[in-house]
Amino acid sequence: MTGQPAATVPCGFTKAGLPIGLQIIGRRFDDVTVLRASAAFEAARPWAQQRPGIG
Known about the structure:
Elements: E1 6-13, E2 19-25, H1 31-44
Antiparallel strand pairs: 1-2
């Protein structure tokens, strides 16, 4: 919408179990590069299998 592409990708948890996000920001109107970088990071770090500890 604004021509300033950005994405936030989950990348892990703190020692306290709080989620951490990685923000990827691209050049103006370069959405494709941001999406490719996000997909590459998710492929390298399969965060969906990670769960924070309880208690």
